[in-house]
């Protein structure tokens, strides 16, 4: 009985705490945990991400992000094929198995500069979280929620985006003691902007590595929201 009362008291205290903590305060605490010295704006690192999926060959990607120099590059190898997308101050270059491609040859390989920009935005966003939630066009919910996910309690921040940025609804789950980001989740929306319950994915984060003094999740396990179906795992290896 005493243990039950203690647990109930903890939940009540946590609920009250989340109500007193604004969404901006939660985000600031999370950023202070992951990037205490404000290094993201001058991020410059190369790292490797190995992606494993059920019944599929692994994909190894070497990623370079240099924000001050406006430089991005990703070289991905799967089976016998290696592709490279590079954006250097907006100038696009593509390579296939080490050979630089012109626009015609790139199209034949289903490679485009639009895809290069997509990869740049994708990797910069995921590996720049939670700092990227300060970007223009990002809308934080007014309140912080307390949710239990897979038996663990989190402080949760709901995020939407301006129409020009994106239509998905995101939820970020933070450890209530350390403010470390441990899960993020997104849902697709219908024509009325409402979340589709069976859409989207959630990503469970574990372990950490330091890049430029920033605590970045090392392992990301991806699941469909629908039926908790496992998709694959990204494991980050610093070069």
Morphology: globular
The total of helices stands at 4
Largest sheet: 14 strands, antiparallel
Q: How many E strands?
A: 14
Query: Please, what is the average pLDDT?
Result: 92
Which sequence of SSEs, written as H and E, runs from N to C? HHEEEEEEHHEEEEEEEE
Question: Ranges with pLDDT <50 over ≥5 residues?
Answer: 4-18
Structural class: alpha+beta
Fraction of residues in β-strands: 35-45%
**Count of discrete domains:** 2
* Separation of the first and last Cα atoms: 52 Å
The percent of residues in helical segments reads 10-25%
Measured on Cα atoms, how large is the radius of gyration?
A: 20 Å
Structural description of this entry:
- With 239 residues, this protein is α+β, with helices and mostly antiparallel strands.
- It has two domains: 130 residues, no CATH class; 84 residues, no CATH class.
- Helix content is 21%, strand content 43%.
- The protein contains four helices and 14 strands.
- Strands 1, 2, 3, 4, 5, 6, 7, 8, 9, 10, 11, 12, 13 and 14 form a 14-stranded antiparallel sheet that branches.
- A hairpin with a 2-residue loop joins strand 4 and strand 5.
- It is globular, with a radius of gyration of 20 Å.
- The N and C termini lie far apart (52 Å).
- About 6% of the residues have low confidence.
What tags apply to this protein structure?
single chain; 4 helices; alpha+beta
How are the secondary structure elements laid out?
Elements: H1 2-20, H2 23-34, E1 44-52, E2 59-66, E3 71-78, E4 81-88, E5 91-96, E6 99-100, H3 103-108, H4 113-126, E7 138-140, E8 145-149, E9 152-161, E10 169-174, E11 181-187, E12 201-211, E13 214-224, E14 230-238
Antiparallel strand pairs: 1-2, 1-14, 2-3, 3-4, 4-5, 5-6, 7-9, 8-9, 9-10, 10-11, 11-12, 12-13, 13-14
């Amino acid at each position: 009985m005493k243990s039950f009362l203690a647990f109930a008291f903890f939940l009540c205290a946590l609920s009250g705490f989340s109500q007193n903590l604004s969404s901006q305060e939660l985000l600031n605490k999370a950023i202070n945990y992951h990037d205490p010295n404000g290094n993201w704006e001058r991020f410059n690192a190369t790292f490797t991400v190995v992606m494993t999926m059920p019944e599929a060959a692994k994909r190894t990607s070497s990623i370079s992000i240099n924000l001050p120099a406006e430089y991005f590059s990703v070289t991905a190898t799967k089976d016998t094929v290696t592709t490279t997308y590079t954006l250097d101050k907006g100038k696009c270059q593509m390579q296939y198995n080490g050979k630089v491609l012109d626009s015609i040859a790139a199209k034949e390989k289903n490679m485009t500069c639009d895809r290069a920009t997509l990869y740049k935005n994708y990797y910069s966003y995921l590996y720049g979280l939670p700092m990227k939630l300060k970007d223009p066009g990002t809308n934080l919910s007014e309140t912080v929620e307390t949710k239990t996910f897979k038996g663990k309690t989190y402080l949760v921040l709901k995020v939407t985006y301006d129409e020009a940025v994106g239509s998905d609804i995101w939820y970020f789950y933070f450890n209530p003691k350390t403010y470390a980001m441990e899960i993020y989740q997104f849902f697709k929306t219908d024509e009325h902007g409402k979340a589709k319950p069976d859409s989207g994915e959630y990503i469970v984060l574990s372990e950490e590595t330091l890049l430029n003094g920033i605590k970045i999740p090392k392992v990301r396990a991806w699941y469909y929201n629908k039926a908790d179906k496992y998709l694959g795992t990204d494991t980050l290896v610093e070069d």
